[in-house]
Structure formats: structure tokens, C-alpha cells
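Morning, I've got a small favour to ask if you have a moment. It would help a lot if you went through both lines with me. I owe you a coffee for this, so here goes:
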Amino acid sequence: MGILAGFVVPHPPMIVPDVGRGSEARIKETAEAYEQVAREIALLKPDTIIITSPHTTMYSNYFHISPGKGAKGDLGDFRAPKVKFDEEYDYELVNRLVDITYNAGFPAGIEGEREKRLDHGTMVPLYFIRKFYGKGKIVRIGLSGLSLIDHYQLGIYIKNVVNELGRRAVFVASGDLSHKLQEYGPYGYAPEGPLYDDRIMDTLGRAAFGEMLEFDEEFCDKAAECGHRSFVIMSGAFDGVNVKSKVYSHQDVTGVGYGVCSIYPIAEDDYNEENKNDENKKAEDRCFLDKFLAKLEEDKSRSDGYVKLARASLESYIINKKKLRLLDDIPSEIMSELPREAFEKQAGAFVSIHKNGELRGCIGTIAPTTECVAEEIINNAISASTRDPRFDAITEDELKWLEINVDILGEPEDIDGPDELDVKRYGVIVSCGMRRGLLLPDLEGVDDVETQISIAMRKGGIKPTDNYTLQRFEVVRHR
């Protein structure tokens, strides 16, 4: 019982002969691997086929699980209306998954369905599966704009529900790889494209699921990958489980990467024999979410006094609705790590908060507004965590996931033009009358001065045609 196997598969409609009309021969290797996967699923005889698809309903901050008793679909959008599907959902499993995620305060559920019909990210895998296996209800789950950690956590919830209900289930992670592998491809070429394909196939081939969480979001975007979050959910479904993996195929002939792999759980003795040199050869060593949390705790302990003060400030406010009073409420262990200048010097300060690699809040002051840097940090930590208009206020449940940086700003100095800027060394302030926009230095994705100035101008509501002035400043960044 439980998740019997997981499969990574692509979903190009052209692989279905009624759609490809001969062009499917170009990806014959992928089709043959797909049929092998379908035969293996038939041999497993699952009660439930869980499919994660990038093309079903998707929200930025919520995982949509398809509701109801079932759904129909066809490939009419791809000139093959006769290729039809009428699938029954595992209603009990879906409801239990919704209950568990709701009770945990996790953003997943059946609300907000935009399109009931099956999507091609679901139908292409089913086309092959149904050739060999006509039984088994399905569960269809969409991706989200949430962090990779959240996707991995959803996989853990899925695993727990499958085990609780005693289902025989297989997990099908539907998703293409990079869409930027060749100049002649539909999205052109980017150097990150083949790098992503090589890396993801290596990671899946080793079942190195902890590494799935280390893919940089900007790198994935530049590669124009499709299925990474789908693969991460599947990875979470095998958290704490010994597995063996196999790569069946990887093709790049259309400018889009197609990979086919399998993941099977295996007994610990067999796993240890096969993986003598693997540092994660025990099942408990494959609890990658726990490892991630442990690393966060280790990073927190290495933070300097400024960052610990910011964390103490926002935690006090979020948990107890209490603002730390200068000197009186600051914990003694933090006081011992703060230099005298924290209480004697005035300066602007920014507090930046990330959750699982994603920005969660950032607010600061260009010039000092309080009597010292320590109080500036206390105030701005509260504002960044609860008053950033771009985000909902941070909740107590999120505190353990937060990464915090504190930037102490130097005195701004006037400059004559962009030539006096350096995106790694200097932040920039663009001013026009009472309007001002600021951007800190050395930010991910800001690689040139023009981009730096442009973002600062947008933040200040300043147009390129306005008569504006520039200032630069240095920062001391505390992590």
C-alpha cells in the first residue's frame, strides 16, 4: 500500500498520433519510453493515479485540486477531437487531502476551478496509460507560484493521505523540461536551457530530491522550464523513503526537452546494498525537508546581532503584538552581540525578509527616523513583516521559514550620472521633487546600472522624461 511508484513524463500533444499526424516520429524515443511507463503502471494495478499538471488551474499563492466526481476532456484544441477521456476522480482522497491541508493552514483546496475540462498536461499521460490500463481513479493537482519548499510540502501531504487511506497509488509528474534548447524551437535559445536539462536529468537520475529545492528561480525562468514544480511535488511524495530511480529517455529535437524517468520505493537493505557510497542511504537521511529546516536553524544561529535583533522584533510583534522597547526588551544574548554604535549611531536601515527563497517583505528608511540604528531596525522589521503593501502580513506559522537581511545605509552622495554607479557596490536614489525611488545594491537579477536606475524610478513614480537627480550610497549588509 502507499505510493507504488512515481513517473516523470512530458506532455507534448504531438506525441499522440492523431495530433502529430506523422510528426510524432521525431520523438519516437520518448514515445517508446512513455509506453514502457504505461506498461509498468498497468503491472502495478493502482487504485489511484495522481497527476500534477502545469496546465490545469494555477494560482500564485494556492494549489488547486480538481473537485467533483470526475471530468471529461478531448484533444480537440490540437485537431484531434476524437481522442477523448472520461475520468473518475478519487473523491475520498481529494477530500481527505483538503482536510489535512486546511487543518495545517496550508494553501491548497478545491476552490476556484476555472476550467473543469481535463487539460493536455493530464490527458497526454492518460493517453498512454489508458492504452494498457483502464482502471484506477485519478487525482488532478495544479502547480502554484509558491516556493519550491511549498511544492515539496504538498508532496508530503499527498504521501501521508495515500498511506492513511491505504491506497495503491502511482504519482505521475507531468511536465516538459526547458523550452529554450534550440534557436529553431518555439521559444528560441537561452544558455540556461541545456544547462537546466542536464542538471534536472542528473538530479532525477540520482533521486537527489534535496537538490530539487536548490534550483534558483531566476535560472528556471531563464530556461523556460515547464515541469520543475511538478517534479518537486513528486519528490516530496517520496520524502523519507528509500528509492531507486531510472532515466528512460531524454530528447531534444524540437527545441523543448522531454524526459522520462521512474522512481520506485525499495526496502532499506536493498537500498543500502545498491547505494553503498550514497551519503543519504538511510531512509531518515532522505527527509530533505527536515534537513532544509535544520540548515535554516543553523543559519539563524550564525546570524549577527543586527539580524537577530530584527528577528526578535518581528517575532515579538507577530506573536505577542508587542514592540520591543529599546534596551528594556532586547534579549541579553542579542545585546551582547550588538556593537556600541548600534545605540550611538543614526542611519537609515532596510530589513529584507525572504521565505524559501522568495521575497516576503522589505521596508526601510533612506535617512534615520529614530535616535539610533537599533531602534531603526526594530521599527523596520515590524513594517517589513506586517506592512509591506505587496504582501499579506507574515503569520506566526511562517516564522520558522524566514531568512532575514539587514542593510545599514551610508550617507547618500550626489553624483553626476550613471557612470558613477556600480550595481554591486552602490545603491541608487532617484529624486524628482518630492518623489524618490531607492534600490539597494547587489540584488539578484539587477546586473547593470540601467536596470538599477529604471527600477528605482518606477518605485518612485518617476518617468524617464522627468528632470531627476541621482545619488549613490553604500551599505553594510548583515546576514
Summary: The mean pLDDT is 94. Residues 148-165 form the longest helix (18 residues). The chain is about 35% helix and 25% strand.
